[in-house]
Queue: 2 jobs
Job 1
Amino acid sequence: MAKKRISLTQYLIEQQRQHGRIPAQLRLLIEVVARACKRISIGVNKGALGDVLGSAETENVQGEMQKKLDIIANEVLIEANEWGGHLAAMASEEMEGIYVVPNRFPQGEYLLLFDPLDGSSNIDVNVSIGTIFSVLKKTGNDEGVSESDFLQPGLQQAVAGYCVYGPQTMLVLTVGNGVAMFTLDREEGSWVLTHDGVQIPADTREFAINMSNLRHWAPPVRRYIDECLAGRDGPRGKDFNMRWIASMVADVHRILTRGGVFMYPWDRREPQKAGKLRLMYEANPMSFIVEQAGGAATNGRQRILELQPTTLHERVSVMLGSKNEVQRLSAYHAEAD
Ligand code: AHG
Ligand code: MN
Ligand code: MN
């Protein structure tokens, strides 16, 4: 007999029935984001045939050159989400200000944040990329919505997820009750539950960091990596392997699948910046997912999910993954202080 397949819709309805976690508006939101990711996935797959590769010759608010797909993915997510009545506003890595739902549509109570296309440097070389999203609830009863409504610590997230466009397209989701993974069945056009209760092993022999920045790192990070590199003869007494995909989505996906630690720490290249990655669109959603899978996430000194954001596009130093390694990194920072 064929194995019974659980769709994303069924998963969400059962989460609501059993745990009361997903009110109808939130379910609609998740399904709409999932549908938008399906569209992005189709575009990604077409590549040169769909004229989606290459640069858009424009700069975003972070001062980074935008790729065509950064803009396409951003538009797909906005168009899909603006009319359903589930959102008050959206914020994106690719937009300077927030996008308030136009008043021709009903306003909902949720706020959606996204990195529409993560790993942009991989687009043109046919390597895995992704979409990351985070959902907050608008607090307070005041009419209207402003940027300050978004400035909530990551612990307040109702939902976080990402979609990885790799050899398979997969949607990874937490509604605060563990982590589930869905694989896109292209023939059926549906998301099928393929992993539930994902757990990151507490120990690992694998780290992910851009080693080309080694000379710029702070001493605690340098110490951690030096000790890994010393292998079996060093203080760790074991050999380590290294991976760096340059798509946070793909690196985190590997860590959720087989453990590891991912770092994009502060470094001396631009010392006034707290890090490269963005708190609201990358670090918070990924930290929520990683913690829900039994891992940990820190900026070296504080748990990422407890950080109080001060601006929409703020950056943060990120170390996440296998719990014991993240704890070790925190200890090295505390010792250095
Ligand atoms: P984005 O494409 O959204 O700007 O994010 C890229 C991020 C992240 O996905 C990845 O881990 C990191 O930048 C790669 O940076 P380097 O090119 O400096 O290694
Ligand atoms: Mn990104
Ligand atoms: Mn991006």
Job 2
Amino acid sequence: MSRTVYVNGEYLAEEDAKISIFDRGFLMADGVYEVTSILGGKMIDFAGHMKRLGRSLSELDMAPPETDDEIEAIHRELIRANDLVEGLVYLQVTRGAADRSFVFPEGVKSSLVMFTQVMNLTQAPAAKTGIKIISIPDIRWGRRDIKTIQLLAPSLGKMAAKAAGVDDAWLVEDGCVTEGTSNNAYIVKGGKIITRDLSPDILSGITRRAVLRFAREAQMEVVERSFTIEEAMNADEAFVTSATTFVTSVVEIDGQVLGDGTPGPIARRLREIYLDESRKTAT
Ligand code: PDD
């Protein structure tokens, strides 16, 4: 069935939606995006995603395409028009269409594209089994704190994982894990939750922020520091967080099984808390 999507001021059937071939998103990956999860037809942490979008735009000197209120209204209309109960709303802003040039064009309006995607978030099989990962070099650029649409490196990472017969990859730079291809990475050792501290090396996950807050509120100890793959392979537990995976256990790293090879208690507890809180606070 055809979805209703949004392109630059219009709601259209997906097959009628069009973007210029001169759009700088298409030509240069000159754009940013957000993925907001939908649970029970409501948005999880919409304010957090809007705040990060604002930061991504300002770091790249890109004009906001609409006001925050208008962007919220578009999210709601797409959820309604597509009867979306569980899944995501994808939002992409690019610098707009202009003759190809490395220099930013002046006076060009940003493009805004949004669409919904149905996804089974709460009952994803990986939530029960956990995921297996490999480690690979982090070949991305140096501003991973900006959520840009340049996703070829993470895409190659997922393909390397697929070729290795596992689910995902963790990225390693200067001997330490930065993050997952599309999620933040954590290990648990002796009851401590360890995750890399925020810097331009990683994306400041909206789910990360919520999960660390819930962990601290539940009296769990959180340490924000870098860790190596060797440390991860010897951890009691490991997990990832993102808008679409919530909290998902990692049960194998580079062939090394963690614990008994099933999701560990801390990751399971954090997923439970995250889901409960998200159901309560989704808007
Ligand atoms: N990815 N790190 C990277 C590199 C990511 O791409 C993502 C999200 C995260 C987690 O951020 P958040 O908790 O705000 O979703 C961390 C999205 C889901 C995606 O590209 O589909």
